[in-house]
């Protein structure tokens, strides 16, 4: 039987959707939640630290912190084709954290990006058939996007 676990990190991150028909075309920020959903087999090896677990939650947190949180927290994520936003952010020079991506930074695209950042690290963590099955990104309390391969 397969077991599922979830762990998340939260970030304060800015973005804009340059072609949006409404207010999301303006520079703004969110308190994002990046939540990894993992499946696999519970570790049954006697005496190991992970016995009875799918994966240690602290190990998942370390991966999420390094590869998601520390990259986009208190940064502005901007599409490489958004010349207006890039010009505005360039005025701030080194005083501003800007993460340039090759996609429009919607919640849907950020979910896919986050999945791709951590999937190789999850699948090789313990060898107990771990698999990152989904990345959920909460942009607002009422808005969540999920990416599954």
List the main descriptive attributes of the protein structure presented here:
149 residues; Tetrahydropterin Synthase, Chain A; six-stranded mixed β-sheet; 3 helices; 34% strand; elongated
What does the model show?
The structure is a single chain. By secondary structure, the protein is α/β, with parallel strands linked by helices. It has a single domain, classed as Tetrahydropterin Synthase, Chain A, CATH 3.30.479.10. The chain contains 3 helices and 6 strands. The protein has a 6-stranded mixed beta sheet. A hairpin with a 2-residue loop joins strand 5 and strand 6. Helix 1 packs across helix 3. The longest helix is centred in the C-terminal third of the chain and has 17 residues. It starts with a strand and ends with a strand.
């Amino acid at each position: 039987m397969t077991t599922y676990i979830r762990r998340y990190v939260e970030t304060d991150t800015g973005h804009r959707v340059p072609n949006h028909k409404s207010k999301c075309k303006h520079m703004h920020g969110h308190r994002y939640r990046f939540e990894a959903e993992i499946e696999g087999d519970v570790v049954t090896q006697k005496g190991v630290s992970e016995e009875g677990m799918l994966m240690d939650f602290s190990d998942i947190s370390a991966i999420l912190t390094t590869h998601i949180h520390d990259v986009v927290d208190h940064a502005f994520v901007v599409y490489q084709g958004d010349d207006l936003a890039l010009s505005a952010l360039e005025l701030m020079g080194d005083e501003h954290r800007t993460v340039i991506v090759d996609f429009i930074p919607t919640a849907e695209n950020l979910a896919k990006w986050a999945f791709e950042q951590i999937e190789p690290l999850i699948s090789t963590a313990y060898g107990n058939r771990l698999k990152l099955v989904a990345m959920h990104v909460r942009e607002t309390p009422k808005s969540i996007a999920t990416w599954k391969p």
